[in-house]
Input
Amino acid sequence: MKRYIQSGRLLKLSEWGEVLQYAKELAAKASKDFGVDVRASVYTMYDGAKGISFKVYDSDGNFYQEYNSGIQSSVADYKRALQRCYNWVRTV
Output
């Protein structure tokens, strides 16, 4: 079974999939609620740990701002971090 290392704890592939799905749904909600194009993407740190970023694009499709989840150790922590990213997008 493939696992993803997150802050010393291994997330199961199913847990990581749950986090990614939540990020995509929250990015779509932010796009709809705030009228900007928000896309969720994965980034990888030098040690292989992964996080999720919300990238905000303007109406012309140009990159504007990025909000990162940070590296978290559980699904619940990722969801809290992604909710903070969603709230930051509101300030754009």
